[in-house]
């Protein structure tokens, strides 16, 4: 059945399945933890840095400055970060986690989908590096370096469940390597 698909069609189908899996993961994170992927990515980057500027954070998580400013506003309203103006350069805004932010980051799940993360850690280091290199090459080929890495999800009904995501990902690649049709998870 899938032998009739061109290589180009197979590539786009695989990219669409990956995109859908990422979207489902994002929705589950929002539903279960009240955070979007960009918000959690920002919190984790702030934790790594200890204290950082808004501009440095935007570069670290590959988002636009205006997008990061909006994310930080929501995180600050939720008591997860504090922003302070630089004492020497009042244009600089420094960001730090609050105690609640530190606790949330410690309890938050990985940004990667759990099954993917587990499978990835089972691979040899060279295999992990090859996957990273391939993904970076795909992003470059798609001229995606200038595109923000993680769009902010809108607030709305979230109906995906963890088992929907697992079922979806199990169907994504069949044991014989064939690509099944793209299906929407049941609600």
Task: Please compute the radius of gyration using only Cα atoms.
Answer: 19 Å
**SSE arrangement, N to C:** HHEHHEEHHHH
- How many β-strand runs? 3
Strand order in space, largest sheet: 1-3-2
Q: In what range is the share of β-strand residues?
A: 5-15%
Largest sheet: 3 strands, antiparallel
Distance separating the two termini: 28 Å
Low-confidence stretches: 150-187
Mean pLDDT: 79
Using the alpha-carbon principal axes, give the shape.
elongated
List the total number of helices: 8
- Helical content (DSSP H or I, runs of 4+): 55-70%
Structural class designation: mainly alpha
How would the blueprint of this fold be written?
Blueprint: H1 7-33, H2 37-49, E1 52-53, H3 54-60, H4 65-77, E2 81-85, E3 93-97, H5 99-107, H6 114-122, H7 125-141, H8 162-172
Antiparallel strand pairs: 1-3, 2-3
Helix pairs in contact: 1-8, 3-4
């Amino acid at each position: 059945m899938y032998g009739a698909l061109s290589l180009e069609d197979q590539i786009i189908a695989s990219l669409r399945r990956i995109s859908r899996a990422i979207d489902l993961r994002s929705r589950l994170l929002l539903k279960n933890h009240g955070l979007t992927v960009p918000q959690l990515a920002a919190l984790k980057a702030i934790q790594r840095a200890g204290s950082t500027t808004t501009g440095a954070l935007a570069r670290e998580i590959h988002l636009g400055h205006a997008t990061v400013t909006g994310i930080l506003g929501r995180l600050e309203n939720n008591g997860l970060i504090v922003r302070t103006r630089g004492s020497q350069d009042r244009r600089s805004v420094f960001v730090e986690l609050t105690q609640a932010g530190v606790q949330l980051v410690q309890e938050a799940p990985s940004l990667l989908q759990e099954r993917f993360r587990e499978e990835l850690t089972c691979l040899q280091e060279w295999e992990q590096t090859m996957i990273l290199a391939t993904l970076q090459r795909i992003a470059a080929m798609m001229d995606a370096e200038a595109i923000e890495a993680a769009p902010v999800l809108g607030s709305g009904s979230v109906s995906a469940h963890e088992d929907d995501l697992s079922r979806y990902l199990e169907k994504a690649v069949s044991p014989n390597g064939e690509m099944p049709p793209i299906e929407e998870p049941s609600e």
